[in-house]
């Protein structure tokens, strides 16, 4: 297999968001979970998105995993590697975006890395280096309350600068508006000035086209799926389209047991609203008792949740959620520690997912990036074929590989999807 674009995603929902975007813009794409084992059979594709769960782990570990993925992608012919980060720049002052960009840049010869997390379809734009989420500066958006990486600074030059070994430059709106050559020149100047990375502005799809073409002149870039779309369009414009749109197994409906479940660990405003709507539309819902998990361990909570689900699963979809309001999350974190709470809840939801699949569930919707990572890892999944789009950033995923190849899934970023997302996803997974 020889690929045209290699991608490393720092979480699994972000990876499926990117895979969806590449597919929509003309690249046959597969999403792998980690670096694939050598004997895993992958379809003939133009792009591979290697998903890592590296957003909220120690920076040195994130670097090691990302470099392993980069080696695998380059060995398969990738001329350009996109490091897929969150469109809300989820990270802390310790990393992991800066350290991974530094390592990928050094590996690829030192050219300044173009960085842009804009995703206009979901309301993320960058202007003068400031990130806006649905028209609100990042630090005023719901991301200020994220359980693992509260985003309290909207200036990405500053945010990335605090995580990086070298200074960070800005490629402002006025330069991006001038076009590809102007952006290439700005990147060259940034390199001469010693900047290892440059935040580029983009508020509309046409800016992402410019950035995609400019980025393709170098070996590495970093951004969200908007930049992925720009890169895909640039590749197709330069080299022409290839093959059929997608491996046919990705879109062919599969026989299903009819058993379906939704697991939510995201505490985002969007997910909490989607749960509220699901509750009023007749989906059986169970709220997990997070305090009980923290006080007495997860086993009894998991076992009670599975008993509850098994009693209902033949009648219709079930929804099990740990999601809570930011005040409740903060209270829990102040007594037990943020990462520790997150980890315990993720492990509980992963164990519940395992039990549900053992009970015959073959349609599974997961809300939350870290939550999705924990579930996919627990199930031992190896790769996904990318199906139709459910909502911007969220495709139908058909499992491929040795484990659970009958499973159809949606991995939803906490922030994505409209109010009716869960019912829409379930109608498309079958
Ligand atoms: N009630 C809760 N209290 C504290 N943390 C929680 C609670 N429910 C879920 N979490 C944790 O919050 C984090 C949510 O992150 P994630 O799954 O990535 O969602 P998102 O996509 O919204 O970022 C996870 O680590 C999850 O375990
Ligand atoms: O770019 C995005 O916003 C998403 O693709 C993404 O990475 C979401 O992360 P989570 O909100 O943690 O799922």
UniProtKB/TrEMBL annotation:
Catalytic function, reaction form: 3-dehydro-L-erythronate + ATP = 3-dehydro-4-O-phospho-L-erythronate + ADP + H(+); 3-dehydro-D-erythronate + ATP = 3-dehydro-4-O-phospho-D-erythronate + ADP + H(+)
Boundaries of every Four-carbon acid sugar kinase N-terminal domain copy: 5-230
Region (Disordered): 238-258
Record's keyword terms, sorted: ATP-binding, Carbohydrate metabolism, Kinase, Nucleotide-binding, Transferase
Keyword Secreted: no
Entries under Pfam families matching the protein: NBD_C, SBD_N
Span of the signal peptide: none
Protein name as annotated: 3-oxo-tetronate kinase
């Amino acid at each position: 297999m020889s690929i045209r674009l290699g991608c490393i995603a720092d979480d699994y929902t972000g990876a499926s968001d990117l895979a969806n975007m590449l597919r929509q813009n003309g690249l046959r794409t597969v999403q792998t979970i980690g670096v694939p084992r050598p004997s895993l059979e992958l379809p003939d594709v133009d792009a591979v998105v290697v998903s890592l769960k590296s957003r909220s782990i120690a920076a040195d570990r994130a670097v090691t995993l990302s470099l392993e993925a980069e080696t695998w992608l380059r060995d398969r012919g990738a001329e350009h590697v996109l490091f897929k980060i969150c469109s809300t720049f989820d990270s802390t002052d310790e990393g992991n975006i800066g350290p991974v960009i530094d390592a990928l840049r050094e590996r690829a010869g030192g050219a300044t890395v173009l960085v842009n997390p804009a995703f206009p379809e979901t309301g993320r734009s960058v202007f003068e280096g400031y990130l806006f989420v649905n028209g609100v500066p990042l630090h005023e958006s719901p991301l200020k309350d994220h359980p693992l990486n509260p985003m309290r600074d909207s200036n990405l030059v500053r945010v990335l600068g605090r995580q990086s070994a070298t200074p960070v430059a800005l490629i402002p709106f006025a330069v991006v508006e001038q076009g590809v050559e102007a952006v290439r020149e700005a990147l060259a100047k940034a390199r001469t000035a010693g900047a290892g990375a440059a935040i580029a502005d983009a508020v509309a799809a046409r800016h992402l086209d410019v950035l995609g073409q400019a980025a393709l002149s170098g070996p590495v870039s970093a951004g969200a799926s908007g930049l992925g779309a720009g890169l895909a369009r640039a590749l197709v414009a330069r080299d022409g389209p290839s093959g059929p749109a997608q491996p046919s197994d990705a879109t062919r409906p599969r026989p299903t047991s009819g058993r379906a479940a939704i697991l939510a660990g995201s505490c985002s405003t969007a997910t909490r609203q989607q749960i509220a709507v699901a509750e009023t539309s007749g989906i059986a819902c169970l709220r997990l008792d997070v305090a009980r998990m923290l006080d007495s361990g997860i086993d009894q909570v998991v076992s009670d949740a599975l008993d509850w689900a098994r009693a209902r699963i033949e009648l219709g979809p079930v929804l099990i959620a740990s999601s809570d309001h930011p005040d409740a999350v903060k209270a829990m974190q102040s007594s037990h520690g943020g990462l520790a709470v997150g980890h315990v809840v993720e492990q509980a939801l992963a164990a519940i997912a395992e039990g549900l699949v053992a009970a015959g569930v073959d349609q599974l919707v997961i809300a939350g990036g870290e939550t999705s990572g924990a579930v996919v890892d627990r199930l031992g999944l190896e790769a996904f074929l990318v199906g139709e789009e459910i909502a911007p950033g969220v495709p139908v995923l058909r499992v491929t590989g040795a484990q659970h190849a009958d499973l159809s899934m949606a991995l939803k970023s906490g922030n994505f999807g409209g109010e009716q997302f869960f019912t829409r996803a379930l109608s498309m997974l079958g």
